[in-house]
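so my prof wants the structure for this chain in the tokens format not the other one, which i didnt know existed until like an hour ago. anyway here's the sequence
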Amino acid sequence: MSSSVVGDLGRLQAAVVDCRRCPRLVAYRQQVAREKVRRYREDTYWGKPLPGFGDPAAKLLIVGLAPAAHGGNRTGRMFTGDRSGDFLFRALHAAGFTSQPESFHRDDNLRLRSCYITAAVRCAPPANKPTAAEFDACRPFLVREILLQEHVRVVVTLGRIGFDAFLTAWADAGRKLPPTPPRFSHAAELNLPGGVTLLASYHPSQRNTQTGLLTAAMFSGIFGRVRRLIGRTG
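here's what i got, hopefully its the right format
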């Protein structure tokens, strides 16, 4: 991994944290950080956009939707501090992509192994629903990550929105799309030009996991498939 790529990625992460492009999201994330919720009353909330994080030479890229108001917006790390993250990091650890099975806070010494986690939108949105304009404003960050993460061989998108957002960013990065528009379904697999495989998964939201739409076995199957694909491509 060249030092220039690491530096470029660091500068991108800093730019994400400093972003104030979307007034609605800025106001909401700051309001949540001030008002908090009772169970986290003693916590100091991050209250800023969340950069992607992980291995600069990752072979696996994970793309989610947006930070949770009292999860990532509180802890300062993607998928950290809520039930979705608990479900995700257990599966990643079992597949060998993390140094520990739980992610508590941005300073808890968690390390990702050949894995990088990011999202389509970097600020916690009201009702967990970014607007189309907010997706558009945030997309250049994901496009830049796609261009910088040149070792990626597998992309796992979480949820239909993450799936669609990644494909739009992939095209904006100048990468070719299949001639037939892909359709989202759990475990759908799509070969993208350049030797990259896209795997779709249901989002590990509390609603999906509690209703059984996404089970631990199903999620484990996704990352088992990632391991086989990475092993095949080297």
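also thought this was worth mentioning. The chain has a mean pLDDT of 95.
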